[in-house]
Amino acid sequence: VQKSDDHDNGAQISSPVISAFKVFQQELDTKHDKYERLVKISRDITIESKRTIFLLHRVTSVPNAEEVLHEADVKLDGVRQKIGLIAEELRGEDLYQFHRAFTPGIQEYVEAVSFHHFIRHRTLISLEEVNARLVFMRHERTDAKGSSEGSRSSPAVLTFQVTPTDYLLGVADLTGELMRMCISSVGNGDMDTPFKLSDFLREIHDGFSYIGNTGPYEVSKKLHTLRQSLGKVEDACYTLRVRGSEIPKHMLADVLSSRTAIMDPDEGVV
Amino acid sequence: VQKSDDHDNGAQISSPVISAFKVFQQELDTKHDKYERLVKISRDITIESKRTIFLLHRVTSVPNAEEVLHEADVKLDGVRQKIGLIAEELRGEDLYQFHRAFTPGIQEYVEAVSFHHFIRHRTLISLEEVNARLVFMRHERTDAKGSSEGSRSSPAVLTFQVTPTDYLLGVADLTGELMRMCISSVGNGDMDTPFKLSDFLREIHDGFSYIGNTGPYEVSKKLHTLRQSLGKVEDACYTLRVRGSEIPKHMLADVLSSRTAIMDPDEGVV
Amino acid sequence: MSVTEMFSYIQGFLSADQDIREDIRKVVQVLEQTAREILTVLQSVHQPSGFKDIPSKCLRARELFCTVRTQIGELKTKFPVEQYYRFHEHWRFVLQRLAFLAAFVVYLESESLVTREEVAKILGIEIDREKGFHLDVEDYLAGVLIMASELSRLAVNSVTAGDYSRPLRISNFINELDSGFRLLNLKNDPLRKRYDGLKYDVKKIEEVVYDLSIRGLAKEQEAGGDK
Amino acid sequence: MSVTEMFSYIQGFLSADQDIREDIRKVVQVLEQTAREILTVLQSVHQPSGFKDIPSKCLRARELFCTVRTQIGELKTKFPVEQYYRFHEHWRFVLQRLAFLAAFVVYLESESLVTREEVAKILGIEIDREKGFHLDVEDYLAGVLIMASELSRLAVNSVTAGDYSRPLRISNFINELDSGFRLLNLKNDPLRKRYDGLKYDVKKIEEVVYDLSIRGLAKEQEAGGDK
Amino acid sequence: MSVTEMFSYIQGFLSADQDIREDIRKVVQVLEQTAREILTVLQSVHQPSGFKDIPSKCLRARELFCTVRTQIGELKTKFPVEQYYRFHEHWRFVLQRLAFLAAFVVYLESESLVTREEVAKILGIEIDREKGFHLDVEDYLAGVLIMASELSRLAVNSVTAGDYSRPLRISNFINELDSGFRLLNLKNDPLRKRYDGLKYDVKKIEEVVYDLSIRGLAKEQEAGGDK
Amino acid sequence: MSVTEMFSYIQGFLSADQDIREDIRKVVQVLEQTAREILTVLQSVHQPSGFKDIPSKCLRARELFCTVRTQIGELKTKFPVEQYYRFHEHWRFVLQRLAFLAAFVVYLESESLVTREEVAKILGIEIDREKGFHLDVEDYLAGVLIMASELSRLAVNSVTAGDYSRPLRISNFINELDSGFRLLNLKNDPLRKRYDGLKYDVKKIEEVVYDLSIRGLAKEQEAGGDK
Amino acid sequence: MSVTEMFSYIQGFLSADQDIREDIRKVVQVLEQTAREILTVLQSVHQPSGFKDIPSKCLRARELFCTVRTQIGELKTKFPVEQYYRFHEHWRFVLQRLAFLAAFVVYLESESLVTREEVAKILGIEIDREKGFHLDVEDYLAGVLIMASELSRLAVNSVTAGDYSRPLRISNFINELDSGFRLLNLKNDPLRKRYDGLKYDVKKIEEVVYDLSIRGLAKEQEAGGDK
Amino acid sequence: MSVTEMFSYIQGFLSADQDIREDIRKVVQVLEQTAREILTVLQSVHQPSGFKDIPSKCLRARELFCTVRTQIGELKTKFPVEQYYRFHEHWRFVLQRLAFLAAFVVYLESESLVTREEVAKILGIEIDREKGFHLDVEDYLAGVLIMASELSRLAVNSVTAGDYSRPLRISNFINELDSGFRLLNLKNDPLRKRYDGLKYDVKKIEEVVYDLSIRGLAKEQEAGGDK
Ligand SMILES: [Mn+2]
Ligand SMILES: [Mn+2]
Questions:
Q1: Which residues of H touch F120 (CB under 8 A)?
Q2: Which residues of C are less than 8 Å from A243 in CB distance?
Q3: Are residues D125 and D142 in the same domain?
Q4: Same domain, H122 and H159
Q5: Residue B242 to residue H217, Cβ atoms within 8 A
Q6: Do B90 and B98 contact (CB within 8 A), yes or no?
Q7: Which of F84, H14, H172, H205 has the fewest beta carbons closer than 10 A?
Q8: Dihedral over alpha carbons D99, D101, D106, D111 (to 10 degrees)
Q9: Has E37 been labeled as part of a binding site?
Q10: Residues of chain A with C-beta less than 8 angstroms from the C-beta of D18
Q11: Which has the closest alpha carbon to D141: A27, C227, H118, G160?
Q12: Tens of pLDDT, residue by residue, chain A (270 residues)
């Protein structure tokens, strides 16, 4: 038997089947390795995006929102660098082939960047605006290799396109953060932001119910949470209105300024 | 309001609450970062262990098993290096605090190393033997830093202890690989290995049913698969016996040698 | 070592593990009973009549914490000290409750935030993992957050009891706490969920302060010299 | 762009996506019908009478592959070429079936393993993703594995039909295939599961060869000049 | 008849069935689109500004219900009338949504509970199964329960919009509805579950009325005398 | 005895068991209907008009409990008394509802907590298992907890109806209940979960009392001296 | 009509529906008992001794089908004929079992595939939905597939009983069946899943024939010339 | 009696119940250990060498059943006898395992089906509920079905061990069992599911017998005349 196996083995080495499978082996390993690298980058993006969101929530409690926004933008630049790594990995590939590897990270980035955008502009960032910031200059070191294939694609610029579905899922998650921000604003005595958030959230909610179940399954799954968030925000506005009803409107300004006055002396007590 | 906020902010900076929370922030971030690093190492360990298992399955078809075993051992050395990184991360930590981060990788490693051990020694590797190979020399570069704290723990040696549960779960998965090996052996005309595997698998099965539901929940979950694997192996042995029954025992050797002879000329046909 | 021996060995380990867990469960059950007793003592501050003798309630609670220390002392003997996290789940719940109770007592006594060190001292445990049975930062924070929600209830009930200045002090305290928590990067874990609850506590207290403000009730007592 | 406009835009994208999928589904359904027809043609080789006119069956199958090429040509027009993997799930199943059928035809014709290039040619598609609608390496391998299981059935039925040499040839072929697959590092995916099935095919064929050997039937025909 | 002939004949049956389902699915998809448009129109009553022109929104919704009737008319032609229950699952979901929308329009117009007859009329269908495409009792009830939860949201938002009398009217309406449902012996699981949700809606609206009462806001407007 | 005989004999056992369960199910269904009727009677106390004639509503409920006793009497005849726990699941749900209704009636009549003995008497059953069909402690407690949540609703609605003193009395009652429950070492999961809900009821009622206090509405009536 | 009246009216609908379902369930239970009896009669053909008197077993089964017809007659009276699909789920399972039993009897009698018309006749029902209680194509096919798996068992057991020619006949029959099914475009999930099982039956029977062939047992009897 | 007194009193009840359950759990844990030991003893019959000394293994198992009887005797003392069903869930699992082990021992000893009476006797319990701790019919049947699947494994392994006559005897036995079960009208879900598994065991054993028959191995040994 040993002899025969030896013989087989000899045959295998030269066999076209075996050499074909050696090619397959490399192709599969290369693909899996790439997938794994993308998963890791995606995890990094998720973590950094989450931290950016935490940072952005601080705007409701600090005097200089601009400072926080700037800091967040710097953090998001870091995240975009990582998305650039994904774009690098996907150069010449079909984005959808590895989509499952990085979709969690991209969704979290959309959540963070749209939150940042809302705080600054009080509007919903568009998909184009998201994508416009995902244009990368090609790294120096790849130029050498790239020059040979450079004729095919644009040589110095690399782009990453967020899919409409990832954008949608990111925006769906954004609503949770908006709800948190709304409750915080009420807690900080902000009488204005909650109503703005309520209107904005209602617009997004109506947008999602307009899309309904035509979207991907994951969107439908998030609709319930979205509806809950809207309910919480509407309740907060309701409470503000109901409580505010107890004083005549012309007194409101007085009351607010006196409140500040009342609260100051207390610091000594604490 | 702006004024008041400014004031608050001033207070916050010097506030003991805020400075305490800044410490917490760092403590939490450090912990999360470590967790994340461990997850990534664990994923690497999983992938490399799986590839080692694939490699080990080739022993049933190649002439020189020793070569494959050696190659696998080299691969496993690489995996052990990575486990060394985990040990490095866990230096001075409570292993169980980060256990969830690296348990999948460790289980897969136990599966791979016990498979390797079975092929070479036809016995079950013990937990001690697994752990005995997870002793690492401390890296040079950490010596400088380590010297100050060196007095507390043994200075040059780092160990990693696989938990009995991870060992058990790895061995449970091993049975699946043993079943695959058994079926392959039959396919290769090996009349001996399947019976050896059957006995070994039965021993492991009886061991698991002796432990029963006293073990962790994940073990109970894997018992069903284990029973199925044993069934497949027992069926294979049954078939070998039933088919073998059709020739008188004294003819068996003749038949086997003639079979080889028969098969050789065919290669021309293919 | 044969397969059978190996499994006997593992089975031995598993049995020992189960025994340890059984022992821990028993002590934890007793601890929970004591924690419920402290809670009953402290809960009574919410009663209109309860506001008067907060100090005596705190003293009573402090006494019960002695029992807690003894029981935790007992707990420590049940497992190897360096395997804290292996059994963490068993006492995590009660430890967070105890951290809350300690934080609540300290707040009632001094209207200040208990430090992790103080909680550890009250419970007779450590804050450094290396030194022994300790209080995890997450468990300390969870306890603080439970207290925050208790304080929002206290703000409401102190108005009912006619104490109009307390809500303002609670408001300032809880706002500082909120600022502290904003510095943290939490994962999507139970702590994150609890922290989301803090926003509602802050909101509730803000509403109470607002109610007092528009009625001039806050000022009134202030002038009259609170506490 | 207002929120409403944004959602209209996204809704437009989703509708377009659904339309594409609907179109793809229709063509794929027709493709599946053709694949079933080819299968019916090739399945008949398992009948005792079927062994005689394998060549004519292969010819008939080759004709039907013309239809397949036309239908895949139709499929290609339904979506942007660079978004192959976006819609992959829709045709993955049928493509693997077709790869199997192509591999089976080629095996019946020449007793050799079809290359990925050949399958691609038979189906009128590419093997490089960059060049257009292509055959994924996984789909090709899945097709080959389906064939392996068909061959183990063929080995059994060729004995019934009195052809005793074919099983030996199949055995060698399938053993080489098995060696090839052993080189791959598969994930825990459907392909891995299928590959586990290959072991049973190898085993089954080995058993047939064994049955023939102990009865001297393999030798017998060999001597008599098989095929 | 040979086996082949018989199966070809059967395939005719299966194809016919699949074609019917395909046709139904398409019409239902269009219906769902219209239902979502009506929802978008009616949902805008929750906006602060939306309370002013409820009548015009209802008119717009009524127009869209014309389209619904046409589309359901289309749906009816897709299958034999007596096979309603064979294909029920395909349109059950959208029918419940439409029943909800009809109930909501009628409530906004007249603050009364739509009857099953009215819903049927608005949708251009029957209530007796014998007479044609009809509205099942369970589907009607499901629609009514969806409306109840929308009304609790409306009570909240009407206060935000400064309308203090509406919540009282909603409260009375929803209490009556609750009593009605208590007459039913619900077994059917999904309906029962929905009904359990009604309790929360009742409670929620009662709390809104409470908030208004304690501030004298309920009376205030009532005194002003609307409705 | 042959295997066939043995299995025929066993089938006798199984049939008998199924028949008993069928009988129980029927009686339980009727009981549920009566329970819903009592609920409808008692629910009306939440209406603004309902506060006036609470006594007459309680009388009506008491009458309906006669029917309940008859129906439970019927239920008792359906199975051997010592097999209570074998079929417990069938009536557990309705028994908890009935315990709640009994507790609610007693509270409305006397503003006191019904004892287990009283509930048992109202339902015509025992409290000692040995004496016959009885009320389990857990089912009694579940009924009491359902009532607690009904009382938080009652506190809200009594304010709407202009009764400002009732919430204070409810608050005291529910606080006492809460202290009582804190004496229990609840392990049993569903009961524990229900008990967690009690905290929300306590808090809700405290907020009602707060709302009254801050507006001076609580004192006002108290001064007027009811109860 | 008041809300109360309306809901009372609706309760009438719901009760009627529940009563119908209860009635159907009872008859179906009896039908299942008869189906099990027929199965016991036919199962005995798998016994070594059972091969001798297949005709008498078929006669006995035919008699029991009389009972089936009576019971299905009973079932038909329990609901309006045009609502077949409303209650389909209740009898679908037993109807498929009965279709299988009818197909098995016919196969044992004549070694031919029962037509849908024949099954319908044996069960005393229709094949056209318009004409009354009928046998759905899908249920007929499910019955046929259950039989296929029974035949693979029969092939195995007939060898044990020493009947070496039957497996070959079964093999031909099942191959024809398989070709037939390949003409169908199955979408329906449960049927598709069952059909996937057919492949295993085909393979199993081929292996039995192989076992006979390689031992010269197939030819042997054929030469002897049965059938 | 005050609320506090009442709840203290109730806590007494709850504690008693928890203590009983704790006691039961402990005994059951020990019982499970013994059951696992018996299983280990009996499982060794599957080893090639195990077939020789079945009698000695049975003796060893019988000895361990003495321990079981003592432990069940212990269990009986832990709760009032008429509350069997209240705590049934605690020991149901182990009781079914023990019923299986008893059935397996009896089969190995005498190749006959253990009766419920015998199982009860082996376990030292009753079969009439009235007489004390008893073996429910369902638990007995579950045990028998677990044994059936063990027997199909035994049939396979006895062939491997060279015992060719045992599978035939097992086949007859299991067929009789199958007929017996077909007399039962199983509703109870877990038992029904287990019974569905019996079909696979029957089929599996038939295939073993087939393999022996076609090779003349069944007859061969029979001729040699064991049993
Ligand atoms: Mn988020
Ligand atoms: Mn594995």
A1: none
A2: 207, 210-211
A3: no
A4: no
A5: yes
A6: yes
A7: H172
A8: 110
A9: no
A10: 214
A11: A27
A12: 333 444 444 444 568 999 999 999 999 999 999 999 999 999 999 999 999 999 999 998 788 899 999 999 999 999 999 999 999 999 999 999 999 999 999 999 999 999 999 999 999 999 999 999 999 987 554 444 444 444 444 457 999 999 999 999 999 999 999 999 999 999 988 889 999 999 999 999 999 999 988 888 888 889 999 999 999 999 999 999 998 888 755 555 555 554 444 343 333 332
Mutate to test the interface with G, among H214, H217, H222 (most CBs of G within 10 A): H214
Q: How far apart are CA E192 and CA B53, in angstroms?
A: 53
Q: Please name the member of A11, A40, A63 whose beta carbon is closest to the beta carbon of B9.
A: A63
pLDDT digits (tens, 9 = 90+) for H114-168: 999 999 999 999 999 889 999 999 999 999 999 999 999 999 999 999 999 999 9
Q: Helical H runs in chain B?
A: 2-14, 16-57, 65-90, 99-121, 127-132, 141-149, 164-187, 193-211, 217-244, 252-266
DSSP one-letter code for D128: S
Distance B173 CA to ligand 2 centre (A): 5
**CATH number of the domain that G40 lies in?**
1.20.58.190
Q: E126: which DSSP letter? A: B
In a shared domain, residues D118 and D17 = yes
Tell me the ligand closest to B114's alpha carbon. 2
Measure the CA–CA gap between F1 and H176, rounded to whole angstroms: 13
Those residues of chain D whose CB sits closer than 8 Å to some CB in chain B are 111-112, 168-169, 171-173, 175-176, 178-179, 182-187, 196, 199-200, 202-203, 205-207, 209-211, 213-214, 218-219, 222
Shared domain for C90 and C196, answered yes or no, is no
D170, D187, D203, best to mutate vs chain B, most B CBs in 10 Å: D203
Ligand that lies nearest to the alpha carbon of residue A114, given by its number in the listed order: 1
Domain that holds residue H8: 1-135
Identify the contact set of chain A against chain E, taking CB-CB distances under 8 A: 195, 198-199, 202, 206, 209-210, 212-214, 231, 234-235, 237-238, 241-242, 245-246
Cα dihedral: A138, A140, A146, A151 (round 10): 60
All partners of chain D with 3 or more CB pairs under 8 angstroms: A, B, G
How many other CB atoms are found less than 10 A from the CB of residue A217?
A: 7
Residue B267 has pLDDT above 50, yes or no: no
Residue entry with tokens 């897969």: B108
- Give the pLDDT band of residue E22 (cuts 50, 70, 90): very high
The residue from C135, C165, C188 where one domain ends is C135
H102 shares its domain with H165: no
Q: Which two tokens stand for residue G217?
A: 């047992």
Residues E63 and E143 in one domain: no
Annotated binding-site positions of G:
150
Number of domains in chain G: 2
Q: Identify the residue whose tokens are 């590897």.
A: A101
Write down which chains contact chain B via at least 3 CB pairs under 8 A. Answer: A, C, D, H
CATH assignment of the domain containing C194: 1.20.58.200
Residue in A21, A207, A214 nearest the CB of D181: A21
Q: What is d(CA C170, CA C157) in angstroms, rounded to the nearest whole number?
A: 12
Regarding whether D5 and D114 lie in a shared domain, the answer is yes
Identity of the residue in F175, F185, F206 whose CB atom sits nearest the CB atom of C156: F206
Domain end point (choices C135, C164, C190): C135
Restricting to C residues 45-84, those with a Cβ less than 8 Å away from any Cβ of F are 46-47
Taking an 8 Å cut-off on Cβ atoms, the answer to whether G214 and D33 are in contact is no
pLDDT, tens digit, for every residue of D6-57?
A: 999 999 999 999 999 999 999 999 999 999 999 999 999 998 787 779 999 9
- % of chain D surpassing 70 pLDDT: 96
Residue C87 sits in the same domain as residue C192: no
The more confident residue out of H219 and C74 is: C74
